[in-house]
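Quick entry between incubations.
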Amino acid sequence: MSINKILNNIDEVLLMGPGPSSIHPSVYEAMSQSTLGHMDPYFIKIMDETKAYLQSILQTENHLTLPISGTGSAGMETCFVNLIEPDDPVLILINGVFGKRMEDLAGRLGASVDVLEFEWGTPVDVDRAQEQLKQREYKILAVVHAETSTGVRNPVPEIAELVRDKDTLYLVDTVTSLGGIEIATDTWGVDALYSGSQKCLSCPPGVAPATFSDKAGESIANRKNKVPNWYLDMNMLTSYWEGQSRVYHHTAPINMLYALNQALYLIMEEGLENVFHRHLENHKLLVTGLERMGIRMLVEPECRLPMLNSIHLPEGVDDAEGRRRLRQEFKIEIGAGLGPLAGKIWRIGLMGHTARPENVERILAALEEILP
Amino acid sequence: MSINKILNNIDEVLLMGPGPSSIHPSVYEAMSQSTLGHMDPYFIKIMDETKAYLQSILQTENHLTLPISGTGSAGMETCFVNLIEPDDPVLILINGVFGKRMEDLAGRLGASVDVLEFEWGTPVDVDRAQEQLKQREYKILAVVHAETSTGVRNPVPEIAELVRDKDTLYLVDTVTSLGGIEIATDTWGVDALYSGSQKCLSCPPGVAPATFSDKAGESIANRKNKVPNWYLDMNMLTSYWEGQSRVYHHTAPINMLYALNQALYLIMEEGLENVFHRHLENHKLLVTGLERMGIRMLVEPECRLPMLNSIHLPEGVDDAEGRRRLRQEFKIEIGAGLGPLAGKIWRIGLMGHTARPENVERILAALEEILP
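Done. Structure below.
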């Protein structure tokens, strides 16, 4: 018995959207190694190695560093649900879909949420954040590092300085930034962050790296109430991911963790600096090619993300039809605009294994074909 | 670049524990097909086909039928967090770890929880449940179908009759039962259930099938408050899994869903009745062999699960050392006892692809070797 018809006819698509990104063949191979039990001693070795890789790539010594058993949004859920108790004051800096999502989630958990909103396509303004932080004592300050909906890099290290000497916990969404640009968790003073596997790590979606500082860990340990989420309770997850004798919590997504291990290994082998450099160089190549065609970038150069390039929809091109042609005729996926940018922009991803010159050439050639 | 050293040295272990179970080669092959985007039209076809398979195997016409993006416990979290609002009265029938887990979770969500507890290794008593249901109006009645911690099959259809004409929602954990014994969701009148991929479906862990009746769906639609969990909010998940134009929620675990699709396809090809029969026949073969060796079963024959066989620890065998030898010398994983049964029982799984005569012979031969 081999794979069924529908699965046998999956196209090999070049994934140049906002994630998932294209996968290195060895990651597929890793994922299809024999499933082990979730308490198997050898699997625990793989967990430990994966954790050490994550610590390196996140530049952290946090012992509370682990992949959450869900996609990036489960990482977000984990950070907020463990840190928030009802009525906790939370400040969220918003300039895109993923900041709005934080607001929605924190509200659901009963936090007292304040937000500062900034125009989509521009970065969060550090001065306005500083002003707001003088008005109220916040338990959590949250921001998105790489706003996937626009392609803006927010000034995460500069914002960190605003709360360095405060009790406030600094929570950062690094879903799209991890593995593409630097994240100096400890140096910057980030207290909690989450990411996804399917962006610059180039692993299929399904696991969400996360880390918590000791300060965040103490906040979790000193909660007045149990975490209102059994699946994502860090106290129990820690007992499974740490120590001499592991305590069964839930069945980890074994094969997804094999894939993550291999994806992280590839980054370690290439070297973090080289990986960042490759993202930047391919971004430059793409921008040069786009500008030569007269296509305009949404975001100003100083805060552009290398791995997520938003372009104004070229004149005379229909949004849906253009993307449909790229997918059907050229086997390339790019992303549509979201929210107020729907129908106005396209998002071209250069994440992880996708960030290679031959892919840049391929998308440029395809765009050339579909321009009127 | 090929897979790294630690992944290259994974043993092929016969998984005869409480899950994960051994995987059919075509499921590994399915999982490593090219990743598509989560909004790709072809991927949406795969989602639709997967949903139709789940409806068949769950014997339901519920349109709210989908795999949740997490392991079985995320399925549990989904059912409870969508249905419970603070102070809702919930009755949980408990006879093992997974019933206790429901109690913990419902309490975290602010429900007013009553429990009836029964001796581990025996089934839930229908009469006592009936008595309790006369004492109070419950919003939810919850029970585990196949108690993985003991090997007991609870009388799910009989319990269903107790709430058939009531407003009470009937919520069932089918993590270990799905794909191994019958689940007649609609006929029985189950309003919400969750399962896992890594038991009798023989897919790696990482996705959790779930279904909700129209009655449960209305309860979710009429909530006073938003679901206090962004990741698992059925309202948003439904917009991604249903209708003509799908709304992006989170990035689905694409390759895990390929694997699930193939695993369900294998069951459909074999035929549901044949699959149940195979589980039962292999269970009988195992029990006969065990009894011949003088090994005693924990559970009485009339409520034994075919896919999870708890045995009293054979006399003269050390729990940890015995399991270590099975894993190291025979490359077989079995499960330890949990809670009050720790050190007293072993759990032998015959789930999905594991439930074959050659595997029964292999574990019997290995046990023979390690008996004193």
